[in-house]
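BUG-243 | component: ligand-complex export | severity: low

The export step for magnesium ion jobs runs without errors, but we want the raw record kept on the ticket for reference. Input record follows.
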Amino acid sequence: MRYKTRDSDTLALSNVNLEIKEGEFVAVVGPSGCGKSTLLKLVAGLISPTAGKVIVDGNIVTKPLLNVGIVFQSPVLMKWRTVYENVSLPLEVLGIDVKSQHDHILGLLELAGIGDFAKNYPKELSGGMQQRVSICRALVHNPGILLLDEPFGALDAMTRNRMNLDLADIWAKSRKTTILITHSVAEAVFLADRVVVMSFRPGRVQAVLDVPVARPRTVETRSSPEVGQLIQKVGSYIGFEYS
Ligand code: ADP
Ligand code: MG
């Protein structure tokens, strides 16, 4: 993937070859600017590769996919809509009758731990809760693929740990094919089936490590020696400033 502007020419990704199985949870770690967000946008069909191809469900991606839900680092909620109305927005855009999905929407809010806040406005919620809303919004049209671009990067450490546990739970219940981009090696290891380590520009896949840790993943998982060793191993590829 090459970005060309009038005064710059950036080779963002080069020779990236990655296959992700249906229902798999893959985490991607790597330094800033190594093309992680670019990779997600390519998968979502939001941008087109300048060489090579992206294949989802056997089809070459040529336009934005409807079968994905995306969560960005900032929740980007509409402040004049309630939590419920923010979550139902993709349904409106897709022309799906919101009323028919009422129970589904409430179920998602419940699953994400914000069942009591359906009628609240974004400004009445903490950053962590706002991000829970954006996770619900990403899941509301029941996409096969969930793309998470540093979703917890702006949260404090305690909230982030809580969100990790809850995301593990949400994933276990929905089993979406998931790509999570994160700066936290611990988060990557805790959540994923595989961790992809990317190297700096042009972004390449430097290593892919299996995380053969039992599920469900719980608070105890985090402090297990097995997880500790994997964190060390991933960290050794990218330097410990990221762990
Ligand atoms: P990461 O998410 O890993 O921090 P990005 O995918 O955002 O990295 O960016 C990878 C590289 O591509 C960076 O050098 C960035 O400046 C460049 N880049 C990203 N988007 C654009 C764009 N729309 N136009 C030009 N360059 C871009
Ligand atoms: Mg990014």
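Assignee comment: Attached the raw record above. The chain is about 35% helix and 20% strand.
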